What does this fold into?
Amino acid sequence: MITKVCAFYQFAALPDYRELREPLRAFCAGLGLKGSVLLAQEGINGTIAGTAEAIDAFARELAHGDMFGGRLDNLELKFSTAEAMPFGRLKVRLKKEIVTLGDAAADPTRQVGTYVDAREWNALIAAPDTLVLDTRNAFEVAMGTFEGAVDPDIKSFGQFKDFAAEKLDPAKHRRIAMFCTGGIRCEKASAHLLARGFAEVYHLKGGILKYLEVVPEAQSRWRGECFVFDERVALGHGLQEIGLRERDKGHHGDE
It folds into this structure.
């Protein structure tokens, strides 16, 4: 039976995030869902998998149910499929940040870069005055990236601010277009750059996954595979499953 997979996030004020952990875990367990969910005061982030009906019920509860009381009204949701359950168990964890950057000034609820629809992305990154920036870690970049993108050569997203301080200059880099797997790291990264005085900061809405979903392979500027944070390991165009590789078992990413 085909398993439905849901990757999701939203930055939203959740001061009661600790109290939400057990009700959310119980709700997911009741639906037979497996995967990983992160809760923090700044929002929610995760990837879960289950039957199509269970995933749909989960998405409805987050967006419209009593548990979050309408606070997750702008969820970034991406759906894909897996030939088998890509998670071994269910984890709902409390974190300081739903994606770790370590910069209090980078607050996506206050300001983020300009979202770019996946269908408009090719035109933006083809412009000669655009610096195309991959915000993911070196392991992910090695598996695939966009043509001409700068690799920050970082081991974790928390090192992005050091890369920006050393390699990026607001006076020189007037237009930056950044991307990541699902979009969440770019929310933080764009907020960080805007706080540092960069003028034009764009990011791919829905991330690489949305691009691979909607942009035909014949028109694609993506090269390689997109690492995902479950046992499917990587997805290709049309979000086709690449398959589990023994060498990649146990790798943990940022998103």
The radius of gyration is 18 Å. DSSP finds seven helices and 13 strands in the chain. Residues 244-252 have pLDDT under 50 and may be disordered.
